[in-house]
Specification:
With about 725 residues, the protein is mostly helical. Helix content is about 75%, strand content about 5%. The strands form 2 sheets. The protein has a 4-stranded mixed β-sheet, with helices on both faces. It has a two-stranded antiparallel sheet with strand order 2-3. Its main location: membrane.
């Protein structure tokens, strides 16, 4: 079974060149796979070897509500990413001109431009018109397209970091705002509580005000009633004082006439000297009664109307006594001296005096009825009359002393009547003044009555207003209480945050979703992730190289008695052995040179050998069936498998045609199996891939056996091929 394969291999021991050929066959896949993986082992970890420029034109901006604190976000960003390894690339701060020239020449792989309004836009997030801050990253695909893609990722990380910092700062200010709101609300709650206390006191005060205004209104009502009564009394006083003034005028006229009569009496007094003795007694009696009248008049001044009425009665008694006795004496004188003209004249004068006294008595009586508050002036008038009566009494006494003194007594009587007349005039003037005052009093009381009415209306409005004020104060008290309670409850619901809490919350809000990228069956390096593809490529190329150097089948055995299957096996076993050697050398180099590791080492090696066995069976078939053209077909298959095996990107991202042919190509299953085993994934996937590779290997060997059977007959085309590679 192995004699033919060994015979095929033994021919490589004859010469050094053939031995070297064997080494080349084994090493070529390792060189191919090793170089590719080495160059792509960890490109992201070496980005700091790529120079990039950063142009900072930011002019800074003043932070809002910060008392002049300035934000220089552009420089902060420069300071953050320019240290080696901090910003992905090796960032160098340059001018705009240097950055443009460096990007065009390929010195810089990227240029990050920070505009002049960068800080201003960041600060605007805390104002009324927020705007987004912008960064500009420039790359040049003419120098390297992949770097441009990587630069985009780096820009996203920078942007995310800035967004997180800016958002955290903004949210921190928001939480500080909560603290300010809490503080101001607390002040408002305290103020509302004080307002509630004041409103309560106001309500109490308005309640007292309502009581006071009610009492005031009641008092004003009483005042109004009193003023109405006063006005009525003032009207009566006005009328009475008017009547008193009229009576006083009449009295003054009467005393004037009495004065004139006393003059005539003085002329005839000498003729009545004989009767004056009796007249003196009468005058004394009249004087006593007049004194009684005066005392009673004084009682009127001191007291009341009853005394004035008694005084009037006494005055009437005195007038009756005086008039009766004097008339009797005069009549006696007339009887004694009927022809004496002086006696006759005296009788006429005495009669006139009596009439005057009657008239005076009547007017005094009327004045008594009408005068209520004029007692003082009436007393003066009575005093004046009493003075005259006393004078008359004295004169009558003098008349009684002697007739020679009658004329003198009559003169004295006349003088007294003059004074009486003057007193009556003063009485008349006083009564007129009293009437004028009463008129003014009436006008004043009328105005006071009207004013009291207005005052009553005002007091009623004041009561209504104070009542409404009390109701309003009650509502204010209730409302301020509700406000105080509401503010207190609201205050309890407004949170406050200390510095540590603000920072923690700001970080959470700035990045509310903490997304962790979790890799199941993660590999240690980017190169390990690509190793399944590059190992498969290396082993496919190893199969191509193997059957470029060795024969696909031992052609001389075709003309022997060996079976076709044995012949096919004889050509396949050397290739299989080379494939196993290629796998061993390749993984040895990867392990020691690149620190390659696999999740399942043993199964990875066994699966790789299976893939090499499958690839070699396909190459054997191509070369055995088509010779040089078969090798060209193997190369075409390589290109198709590179596009459809899904080694770098999932095959689903490739055009539809590659997705269709992918399941029918051996490298697709080799890549899937190796990727699973290297990463330590689901062994079922690797087992499926292994079954497919075994099936493809068996199909290829069967097909090669068929080809061997056909090769036993040589045709002219084989002897003279139209194309030989």
């Amino acid at each position: 079974m192995f004699s033919l394969p060994w015979l095929e291999l033994s021919r490589f021991k004859r010469h050094t060149i053939t031995r070297l050929a064997m080494i080349v066959i084994i090493v070529i896949p390792s060189i191919y796979g090793g170089l590719y993986l080495a160059s792509n082992w960890d490109p992201a970890g070496h980005l700091d070897k790529l120079q990039a420029a950063i142009v900072n034109e930011d002019t800074g901006a003043e932070k809002p509500d910060s008392d002049g604190e300035k934000l220089d976000a552009g420089q902060e960003l420069v300071d953050e990413i320019t240290p080696k390894g901090e910003g992905g690339f090796d960032w160098q701060e340059t001018s705009q001109k240097e950055a443009d020239e460096g990007l065009a020449e390929g010195k810089y792989f990227a240029v990050l431009e920070i505009p002049s309004d960068f800080s201003e836009m960041l600060v605007s997030t805390g104002g009324d018109d927020p705007e987004q801050a912008g960064l500009r990253l420039r790359t040049d695909d003419a120098h390297n397209f992949i770097v441009g893609q990587m630069a985009g990722t780096i820009l996203s990380e920078i942007k995310d970091g800035l967004s997180k910092t800016t958002t955290a700062e903004y949210v921190n200010q928001v939480y500080l705002g909560f603290n300010d709101i809490h503080s101001e609300t607390e002040k408002a709650a305290d103020g509302a509580a004080e307002l509630h206390d004041g409103a309560g006191q106001l309500h109490d005060g308005t309640g007292e005000l309502v009581g006071g205004t009610t009492k005031l209104d009641k008092g004003i009502g009483t005042l109004q009633t009193g003023l109405i009564d006063l006005d009525k009394g003032a009207g009566e006083l006005k009328k009475g004082s008017g009547d008193l003034a009229d009576g006083a005028d009449t009295l003054a006229k009467s005393t004037t006439e009495a004065k004139n009569g006393s003059k005539k009496l003085a002329d005839g007094a000498g003729q009545v000297a004989d009767g004056t003795s009796e007249l003196r007694d009468t005058a004394d009696e009249a004087t006593r009664k007049a004194e009684d009248v005066k005392r009673k008049a004084d009682d009127v001044v001191d007291g009341a109307r009853p005394k004035l009425e008694r005084a009037e009665g006494d005055f009437d008694d005195a007038r009756t006594t005086v008039r009766g006795d004097m008339d009797d004496r005069i009549k006696q004188l007339q009887e004694d001296y009927p022809d004496d003209p002086n006696v006759k004249k005296l009788a006429e004068d005495a009669n006139g005096l009596g009439e005057d006294l009657d008239s005076a008595h009547k007017r005094a009586s009327d004045a008594k009825d009408k005068a209520k508050s004029l007692e003082d002036k009436l007393t003066d008038a009575v005093d004046g009359v009493m003075d005259k009566i006393r004078t008359a009494d004295k004169k009558i006494g003098q008349l009684d002393d002697g007739a020679q003194k009658v004329a003198t007594g009559a003169d004295d009587l006349h003088s007294g009547l003059i004074k009486l007349d003057a007193g009556a005039g003063k009485l008349a003037k006083g009564a007129g003044d009293l009437h004028d005052g009463a008129v003014q009093l009436k006008d004043g009381t009328a105005k006071a009555k009207d004013g009291a009415g207005d005052l009553k209306d005002g007091s009623e409005q004041l009561v209504d207003g104070s009542t409404e004020l009390d109701k309003g104060a009650g509502k204010l008290d209730d409302g301020s209480g509700e406000l105080a309670d509401g503010l207190q409850k609201g205050l309890e619901q407004i949170p406050t945050y200390d510095k540590k809490d603000r920072e923690n919350r700001s970080d959470v809000v700035a990045v509310p979703v903490d997304a962790d990228k979790v890799k199941d069956n993660a590999v240690d390096a980017y190169g390990e992730g690509l190793s399944a593809f590059f190992v498969s490529l290396a082993l496919w190329i190893g199969g191509m190289i193997t059957y470029m150097v060795i024969n696909a089948i031992p052609y001389r055995a075709l003309f022997s008695s060996a079976t076709s299957s044995r012949i096919a096996w004889a050509g396949y076993v050397p290739g299989l052995l080379f494939g196993i050697a290629q796998v061993a050398v390749l993984y040895a180099i990867l392990t020691f040179a690149l620190d390659f590791s696999a999740g399942a080492w043993l199964w990875t090696l066994l699966f790789s050998m299976l893939a090499a066995a499958c690839f070699h069976s396909v190459h054997q078939l191509c070369v055995a069936a088509l010779g040089g053209v078969g090798r060209l077909i193997a190369l075409v298959l390589l290109m198709l498998q590179i596009a459809s095996a899904g080694g770098t990107y999932p095959v689903e991202t490739a055009p539809k045609i590659f997705q269709i042919i992918s399941p029918f190509l051996p490298m697709t299953h080799a890549v899937n199996g190796l990727r699973t085993l290297v990463a330590g994934g689901d062994m079922f996937i690797a087992a499926q891939a292994a079954v497919v590779l075994l099936l493809m290997t068996a199909i290829s060997l069967v097909a090669t056996t068929v080809v061997c059977s056909r090769k036993r007959m040589v045709t002219l085309t084989q002897l003279h091929p139209s194309l030989q590679l």
